[in-house]
Amino acid sequence: MDMNEKMKTPRGIEPLWNQYIHAKASARGIPLSGNFELTPRCNFNCRMCYVHQTVRAEEEWTAREWLELGRVARDAGMVFLLLTGGEPLIRKDFREIYSGLKRLGLLISINTNASLIDPDWVAFFKKDPPLRMNISLYGASDETYRALCGQGSFHTVAANIRMLREAGIQVRLNASVTPINAKDVPEIYRFARENDLVVKGTAYMFPPSRINGGAYGEAACRFTAEEAAAHTLLCREQYMDPEQIRDMVPTEPHDPTEDCTDGQGERMSCRAGKTNFWVTWDGRMLPCGMFPTDGYDLKHMSFAEAWEATRRDTAAILLPAACRECALRAQCPLCAAACLSETGRTDIRPEYVCRMTHELAEAIRKKYPLKEDCYEGE
Ligand code: SF4
Ligand code: SF4
Q: Which of 31, 64, 116, 349 could form a disulfide with 322, with the two C-beta atoms 3.0–4.6 Å apart?
């Protein structure tokens, strides 16, 4: 394979200007980036999903409520908005919500499984395009889709992705890699290359603690930590060259017992609760969608109050002290939401995540030793 072709990488997606305005907004406490989870309903039933629930459409916030929230948030500084679900296109009033929010001047992206798209949807989005559509690709065959999502929709989704691309809509692919679709990883990346798309694959599945009654650390459909490490490496091998893969881990083998640092852990470093907020389908504000907490109910408090409370709470969060000086920190998907979902607390090192990261570093060192001519990968 041509390496230039291979280097269609998910890294570098974010331009510097975006980082700059987020830093500015963070310093001023501006909620620059919002996520509206319009519905928990979905026509799929993915086994690793952390949102999908069966509710009646009447239980969800109405189009009017979302549009009013959009206006208030826009006036508070929101520029970027992600419309997500569930499957947001399942809502009968999606077009009303989308067009109304666009008229507010917001830069809107959409998360979708792309199975409900048809020529009429494509014409709609072509006329008034979103900034980007983030499409989850769950496999490379109808059979895999049936096993993981409950519907054999790969060919429909693939055709819809091509239709959107031909209409000039920006598309990015996300791939959740689980034991059920693992065998399709090379095909998923091949599909992305053939369609000139970037795919972001992840083999770390959050426990769906938001909807499983707070059963922290329990995930029905995920790898063992060791398997997750192996599949993370497999994903990287689809778009990175051996030097890049090797450069991502420290030169020296890492001793996990060195991480036992005493004292206080770090504060959160992501954008959740600094410039980013999430509103659930029933109107609760969370710092991000993965937080298995109740959040602040916007039926009982104003947007400004909920945002201030969210900012205050997240600023007080401490991550595990053990992670503070970890040499693998940059490689680890550790964050407050992962700690909470895995352990029920933000300051306890999540065993699964830690083992997965150490295994990944070890696997990379073994397969891609420093001496260049020893590479087995290519
Ligand atoms: S398509 Fe997305 S929202 Fe729907 S069940 Fe699958 S993971 Fe959940
Ligand atoms: S959880 Fe991640 S950051 Fe923390 S010690 Fe383990 S590998 Fe390091």
A: 349
